[in-house]
Design brief:
- The structure holds two protein chains of two kinds.
- By secondary structure, chain A is α+β, with helices and mostly antiparallel strands.
- Chain A has one domain: 2-Layer Sandwich (Beta-Lactamase).
- Chain A is built from four helices and six strands.
- Chain A has a six-stranded antiparallel β-sheet with strand order 1-3-2-6-5-4, sandwiched between helices.
- The model of chain A has no long low-confidence stretch (mean pLDDT 87).
- Chain B is α+β, with helices and mostly antiparallel strands.
- Chain B has one domain: Dynein light chain 2a, cytoplasmic (Beta-Lactamase, 2-Layer Sandwich), CATH 3.30.450.30.
- A five-stranded antiparallel β-sheet of chain B has the order 2-1-5-4-3.
- In chain B, a hairpin with a 4-residue loop joins strand 1 and strand 2.
- The longest helix of chain B has 21 residues.
- The radius of gyration of chain B is 13 Å and the shape is globular.
- The mean pLDDT of chain B is 91.
- The interface between A and B is small, with 9 and 14 residues.
């Protein structure tokens, strides 16, 4: 498990232990990575975070179009692995969680412990995160710094 | 159909000491239908009960035995009973410590045969 924000580590560790999830990725709604577990390649993290953010943005918009509201979560059941994708709000803004699980877990367990992790994150999140402007010039540097932190190189 | 399922579950919750009953999707651990689950987090019970039953099934399979036909989890303040139904469904009852286990088991199996 690798985290960018230290206060995320404990709730995420507990979620991993209790849900038996195989892969977890926490990102901001713009796709910036906050924490990951289970990925071995930086490229996979970048792809998954971008796809997760795009899917959540699409489903949020679909929810608005159909008046069903912003999407809370969605799931996909594959033949051997399931995928759970959910958005949640923190003082830092909207974050996205992407979870991959297999036969050692279930959608119900992942949802149950994911909700508990979100509650813990809300309780631990710094109340007044510093607001700052995101500049295009900073974006690549920040992305590279995040990936170095997440993969230890 | 939903009314039939809830009505079937009520035959379980009518047993004295049963606090609630539900039908759970065993693979996903999600609630399909529930009856009299006041004060109980049904989603949590469904997820955890399905997880316990799945692990027990894997354990008995590893031991060369068939999957359990009835699971009874006893705790200090109550208990949980589960009977796998047809397909992917599981019939679950949450009980007080003092309950007629045989009668609940009978009702769980009946619902599992009729509905699940």
């Amino acid at each position: 498990m690798r985290v960018i924000e230290p206060w995320v580590a404990e709730p995420l560790q507990r979620f991993l232990a209790e849900s038996a999830a195989r892969v977890v990725l926490l990102t901001t709604s713009s796709g910036q990575v906050v924490a990951q577990h289970g990925f071995t390649r930086a490229l996979d993290v970048m792809s998954a975070s971008a796809l997760g953010a795009a899917i959540m943005a699409s489903t949020d918009e679909l929810g608005r179009l159909t008046a069903s509201g912003a999407s809370r979560s969605l799931s996909h059941q594959g033949s051997s692995r399931g995928l759970f994708l959910a958005g949640f709000d923190l003082p830092q803004g909207r974050w996205i969680g992407l979870v991959v699980y297999d036969h050692d877990s279930s959608l119900g367990l992942v949802r149950l412990f994911f909700d508990r992790m979100v509650e813990e994150l809300r309780a631990l999140a710094p109340v007044d995160p510093p607001a700052r402007e995101v500049l295009a010039a900073d974006f690549e540097n920040e992305l590279n710094a995040s990936l170095r932190s997440l993969f230890g190189r | 159909m939903k009314a039939d399922i809830v009505s079937a579950l009520e035959s379980i919750t009518r047993v004295r000491g049963v606090r609630g009953a539900m039908i759970v999707s065993a693979e996903e651990g999600l609630v399909v239908a529930e009856s009299s689950m006041e004060g109980i987090d049904g989603a949590a019970v469904a997820a955890l009960a399905a997880g316990v039953v799945a692990r027990l099934a894997r354990a008995t399979e590893a031991a060369g035995r068939t999957a359990p036909a009835f699971v009874h989890l006893r705790a200090g303040a109550g208990g949980l009973m589960a009977v796998p139904g047809r397909g992917d469904l599981l019939v679950v009852a949450v009980t007080d410590p003092e309950v007629n286990v045989g009668l609940v088991r009978l009702e769980l199996r009946r619902v599992a045969e009729d509905v699940a």
